[in-house]
Specification:
Length: 1228
């Protein structure tokens, strides 16, 4: 070796040695106390074994904590935790590790029972490396078992859920930190601020381990020479060819069969496996051999097994290291030591960074600060000169329920905080958008909850608001609202009344920013998707200044959501969207929420969600195989209903005729009135009796599992058929829209509450199908509910202390008592920043037939005054009636605008001018802000007419709140129908005052609330708990079963659950035992399925048979066909086969090919063994199939020829979709 080369080699070795020495000098943290096996597993990203964790934990306690810890337990479940807690002795502290959601996601709990004078006190310190609170169910069970218990949680986030391998070692390190905390004898509550090690602090641990392995390898010169040769021998040209071929295959896999570019695939394959390339590979790896375990091994693996194992360990560890400057410095040392090409290795890891960046594109991010800075509006001077003084605002603030006096000390405290914010703002008033963004970066996830922390945060937000709005500052009531929400929260949530027009959207964003800076994720629940979308649009720039991402989970036109929305820091959406997305995930069959926890929730219009719709249940319902046969039952019922209606009308007419003919006029009038009343009361009962007598569920080929169901549901179906005919009307309960295929579709409207169009909702229990038959629309499946959760149950998934709500009208004391009974929350009221300029006009009761005309006259009277009017109607039908009357009087003095569909949302962006008449439904009754121009305000402002009697004073106030916002002028009145009054009165009379009407209304509301508290809450809690038991069971029982066969078992179990629920029909009156006992009853019924055998619906057995047929396993297929026949009692199974035959015959193949394929696929006869066909078996099978299908064909034929069908059909132009659907036998 020449001197120059020797000198260079010597210098390189010195550099390697110095690098190794520098990294090796770093002190170990987590890995220090591990044995070799645990250390290797951890560094390589493999979870530690429980027995090793137990051994290591006991060593740590013995070494550091023998004087503060008595026992250690590593447990498997919450049940084990509860049992251990119940067995604990006084004064003997216990440390426990137990898993959260996965077997390796360990949590830490310290538990001690202390003797006191009155009763024993239990203290629990809880630490989850993921930063979560203790599971709600476990917390409830603990508090149920122990009266005096204090749970203190440290929510510092150390790990993400995808770092599962690290939970064990990090929890061991947490035991050390906990013992250190206990040894210092600090106050229990200080545990929340204790600093725990984060995984990012362990970068040096990984690098040190890599360098140690590298040091061992670099001493073996023979291995280094072999390694270099091996790497050089790999043909570099192979890589792009492999990539090209696999990309082609990937692209083609997404194409239809007709679009496959076979020539392109062939060319790429030939290029990859060309003779030259294959020869090259054979030459380079000619020494590859097969070992005793039939695994291929390279020459280098055979000659250097230990060294190759260590090399593998090096790269396993590097997979878990953050790729940064330190990483590349260590990689350079490794490359030099092992004589590897550093640039190649560097480019490989840089490509991984790019891949991660691509993955990060699926995460919602805040807007870039530079873009925000460019878009800031020009600053202008703005001040609130007519705001109420602070002392007046403070005098009106209420903290607590109505009737309770607010503590003066609370008000003084709030005043001091407000003044401190004003003072703090002075130090921020010249800050730029970049200054605020830098401050937010330093505080995100770390903002404290002290008084000083909150004061500074609000001052900074005030400045940010000033910049993004072009000069506006937060109003005093908005700042006070945030302070009130966070003031003296004693482990309870808080609901605030903030009047309409006071900027609830701004207040939500202020509270959300504080919570995000404290490390939380925030869900903002609204009453309709328009408010959710507006909330994001109006606040996105403000959130982005603080580096906070925001999104909405609103559904697109195709019913899907942006899959990354649940990664946002703040997520807006309707409570229904949140519920459905939770339900999709609850059975472990999807990951819609991306693992998002139930952290902090802000409820906008909380009264609507928790009182008006508190009993609402979100349901995921599915159609199940065989349900299409129920269409014949619905058709029978509807046809019988038409006949029964005509028959009943004929009887009524005859009875009235006899009364008139056989009695004097006065007596005839009395008997006539009596007859009408009697017939009206008994009509439904009589018609039901007539329909039942026709035996509408007697369908000869109805599948066995549906027969009992149909019998139990008949009365409900009859009730819904009557409701569909007489009480369910277009433009009130539903709307007919045209779908993409030109057919009609029934879309329900939430007309009584939000007014929104429920495009994805299908009514249950036959109602949707009867409305479809009513309009001769193609029938959809009946669906059954398998997953559900109530509004109350969903909100209860958040911790009480993290529930915040706001509304314009908090409601009566009775309503507040109800909410307090359900949740651990308190209340507050915030004053308006300007005195309200609102006048309510006396209400008017109008005869039903005159209502629309009277509303039109009222509208024009205010238009004549130079004002504008908003009319809130109960339904679209009412709205159209008013519009028709206005059209008769149409002139240039007024302009009609509409707001009754989601697409009318832009109406709120245009200012309301003199003569504007806005006809709306309840969709405009909450949260909408109609901005009036100066001329309208000068003439008295916007006038609101509510055309129905709201169910309570609070809902009435919401509708009236569309006017007189932010100190503007306005007025409102009720114009209602006479029948609404009669429904409230015990007996009909004309001399009722409007005050009495409202009193009767409020009395009925009080009784409704009483019933909710006494009955519905019990029923909803029971149902939610019951579903929780099923979801947990289903998820755990089926999570490890991945076979195609078991997929059908899962479906059978879920369907049985849905049928069982429907049959049970749980209500407050029939709930007598604990949900756990009821669920045990279900498990007993489902035992056969739980044991892995399909037993409820034969169609799932056919599904398994088809799977095995497709994979050539005819023996297994035959077994499941026989199982299907056994379950069904041979009911219509062959009919299902014949339908598959029909589909197959449409492929266009030759007759012989089709016949042979059928014989092979469906009769288990091998295509290549056609000579051995037993024709008697074939003939028997086809005869049976034909017999079954002919039964259905003959039934449909008879139905089509039946004169009763004519009573269902509507005269219409073009194709009758209902009739077409019936003839085709196709069901959506």
């Amino acid at each position: 070796m020449n001197t120059k080369r020797a000198g260079a080699l010597s210098q390189r070795r010195r550099q390697v040695a110095e690098g190794i020495k520098a990294v090796s000098a770093v002190q170990d943290t987590v890995v220090a106390g591990m044995d070799e096996e645990s250390r290797k597993n951890f560094l390589a990203g493999r979870p530690c074994k429980p027995e090793k964790l137990t051994e290591d934990a006991k060593k740590i306690i013995e070494t550091y904590g023998h004087n503060v810890v008595d026992k250690f337990f590593l447990l498997k479940s919450d049940k084990d935790v509860l049992r251990t807690l119940n067995d604990a002795e006084i004064g003997k502290p216990i440390i426990m590790m137990y898993p959260n959601r996965s077997a390796h996601m360990w949590q830490l709990m310290y538990f001690v029972v202390q003797k006191t004078e009155k009763e024993n006190k239990i203290t629990i310190l809880f630490k989850d490396p993921a930063g979560n609170d203790i599971a709600q169910n476990l917390e409830k069970e603990i508090k149920k078992s122990f009266e005096n218990v204090e749970i203190i949680t440290n929510t510092q986030k150390q790990l993400n859920k995808n770092q599962m391998y690290a939970y064990g070692p990090v929890t061991l390190e947490n035991i050390k930190t906990l013992i250190n905390f206990l040894n210092k004898h600090r106050q229990w509550l200080e545990f929340t601020d204790e600093n725990f090690l984060k995984l990012k602090d362990m970068q040096q641990d990984y690098l040190k381990a890599v360098i140690e392995l590298t040091t061992e390898l670099k001493e073996n010169d023979k291995f280094l020479i072999a390694l270099k040769k091996f790497l050089n021998d790999i043909p570099v040209a192979l890589v792009p060819l492999v990539n090209k071929y696999t990309e082609t295959l990937q692209g083609m896999s997404e194409e239809d069969d007709d679009d496959l570019k076979c020539e392109e695939i062939s060319n790429n394959r030939n290029e990859l496996f060309s003779k030259g390339m294959v020869t090259n590979l054979k030459h380079q790896f000619k020494n590859m051999s097969i070992d005793s375990e039939n695994e291929f091994k390279l020459e280098i693996q055979k000659n250097f097994p230990k060294e190759m194992t260590k090399l593998n360990e090096i790269f396993e560890i590097l997979d878990n290291v953050k790729i940064d400057k330190e990483f590349f410095e260590a990689l350079k040392i490794i490359s030099q030591a092992l004589q590897l090409d550093f640039e190649k290795l560097k480019s490989f890891y840089e490509s991984r960074i790019r891949a991660k960046e691509d993955e990060a594109e699926n995460i919602i991010k805040s807007d870039a600060i530079d873009e925000i800075a460019k878009q800031l509006p020009e600053p202008k001077q703005s001040s609130c000169t007519d705001c109420s003084p602070l002392h007046e605002l403070m005098a009106e603030i209420v903290i607590g329920k109505d009737g309770e006096d607010s503590e003066e000390s609370d008000k003084n405290d709030l005043t001091d905080k407000y003044m401190a914010i004003v003072e703090k703002y002075e130090s921020w008033k010249n800050a730029t958008i970049y200054d605020i963004n830098d401050w937010a970066k330093n505080h995100k996830g770390n903002l404290g909850a002290t008084e000083d922390d909150i004061i500074e945060a609000v001052a900074v937000m005030d400045r940010a608001f000033h910049l993004v709005t072009g000069g506006f500052q937060l109003r005093a009531p908005q700042i006070l609202s945030v302070l009130v929400f966070l003031h003296n929260q004693q482990n309870a949530g808080r609901l605030c009344q903030i009047k309409t027009g006071e900027g609830k959207t701004v207040i939500v964003s202020l509270l959300a920013v504080i919570k995000c800076l404290q490390g939380h994720r925030v869900d903002v629940l609204t009453t309709n998707p328009l408010l959710a979308a507006e909330g994001v649009t109006e606040t996105k720039r403000f959130y982005s200044v603080f580096g906070i991402s925001v999104a909405t989970n609103n559904k697109g036109s195709d019913g899907s959501i942006n899959p990354s929305c649940y990664t946002a820091d703040v997520l807006y959406g309707t409570i229904t969207n949140f519920q459905f997305d939770h339900l999709k995930d609850s059975l472990g069959e999807s990951n819609t929420r991306r693992g998002r926890h139930f952290d902090v929730v802000i409820l906008d219009e909380v009264d609507s969600m928790l009182i008006d719709n508190g009993g609402h249940i979100a349901k995921l319902a599915s159609p199940y195989p065989g349900m299409e046969y129920l269409r014949y039952v619905y058709i029978n019922i509807w046809a019988a209903l038409q006949r029964a209606d005509a028959e009943y009308a004929k009887e009524s007419k005859q009875e009235i005729k006899e009364i008139i003919l056989n009695n004097p006029i006065e007596e005839a009038q009395i008997q006539y009135d009596s007859c009408l009343e009697k017939r009206s009361v008994n009509k439904y009962k009589a018609i039901k009796k007539i329909i039942s007598a026709t035996d509408p569920t007697n369908i000869p080929f109805l599948p066995k599992h549906l027969r009992d169901y149909a019998a139990s549901q008949l009365d409900t179906w009859l009730t819904n058929a009557l409701h569909a005919k007489y009480e369910c009307h277009e433009h009130i309960q539903y709307r007919l829209i045209t779908d993409e295929n030109g057919g009609k579709k029934v879309v329900p409207i939430d007309y009584q509450n939000t007014g929104v169009t429920m495009t994805k909702t299908i009514w249950s229990k036959g109602l949707h199908q009867f409305v479809q038959i009513k309009h001769n629309i193609e029938l959809t499946y009946e669906t059954l509910t398998s997953s559900y959760i109530s509004n109350l149950g969903y909100v209860n998934m958040y911790k009480d202390v993290n529930i915040y709500g706001m509304t314009g009208t908090l409601g009566s004391e009775a309503e507040q008592d109800l909410l307090s009974k359900i949740y651990k929350i308190d209340f507050a009221k915030i004053p308006t920043f300007r005195a309200k300029q609102f006048r309510e006009l006396p209400g008017t009761v109008v005869e039903d037939d005159d209502w629309a005309e009277r509303v039109a006259v009222e509208i024009l009277s205010f238009v004549d005054q130079g004002r504008a009017a908003l009319v809130v109607c109960e339904s679209e039908e009412d709205l159209m009636a008013v519009e028709q009357n206005l059209q008769l009087l149409k002139d240039d003095e007024f302009r009609v605008r509409f707001y009754y569909r989601e697409e009318h949302a832009d109406e709120t962006t245009e200012k309301v001018k003199v003569g504007d008449v806005i006809l709306a439904t309840n969709i405009a009754g909450r949260g909408t802000n109609f901005k009036t121009d100066k001329v309208v305000e000068g003439n008295g402002g916007l006038h609101v007419i509510v055309g129905f009697l709201p169910c309570n004073l609070r809902v009435e106030g919401q509708a009236f709140g569309r006017t007189s916002r932010q100190g503007n002028n306005g007025s409102a009145q009720l114009v209602i129908r006479r029948r609404e009054v009669n429904e409230l009165l015990p007996e009909i009379r004309e001399d009722v005052s409007f005050e009495e009407v409202k009193a009767l209304r409020d009395s009925a509301e009080f009784k409704r609330l009483e019933k909710i508290g006494n009955e519905f809450v019990k029923e909803l809690n029971f149902k939610d708990t019951l579903y929780g038991l099923f979801a947990d069971f289903y998820r755990k029982e089926t999570q490890f079963a991945a076979s195609e066969e078991y997929e059908y078992v899962r479906k059978d179990l879920k369907e049985l659950w849905a049928f069982w629920l429907e049959k049970k029909h749980f209500t407050a009156k029939n709930i007598t035992i604990d949900p756990s006992a009821v669920f045990d009853e279900f498990k007993q019924k489902a035992k056969t399925i739980i044991d892995g055998e399909i037993s409820h619906n034969a169609y799932y057995a056919i599904g398994v048979a088809d799977y095995y047929l497709g994979h050539g396993n005819f023996e297994e297929a035959q077994k499941f066909v026989e199982r299907a026949i056994e379950i069904s009692g041979d009911m219509n199974i062959a009919g299902a086969y014949l339908k598959k035959f029909e589909a197959f015959f449409e492929t266009g193949s030759s007759f012989l090919e089709r016949l042979n394929e059928i014989l092979k696929k469906y009769l288990h006869i091998n295509f290549f063994d056609i000579k051995s066909i037993d024709l008697s078996v074939v003939q028997s099978s086809l005869k049976k199939a034909r017999s079954h299908i002919e039964n259905e064909v003959e039934y449909v034929k008879g139905l089509m020829e039946d004169s009763n069908l004519a009573t269902i059909l509507l005269p219409e132009e073009g194709e009758n979709h209902f009739l077409k659907h019936l003839r085709s036998g196709r069901v959506v």
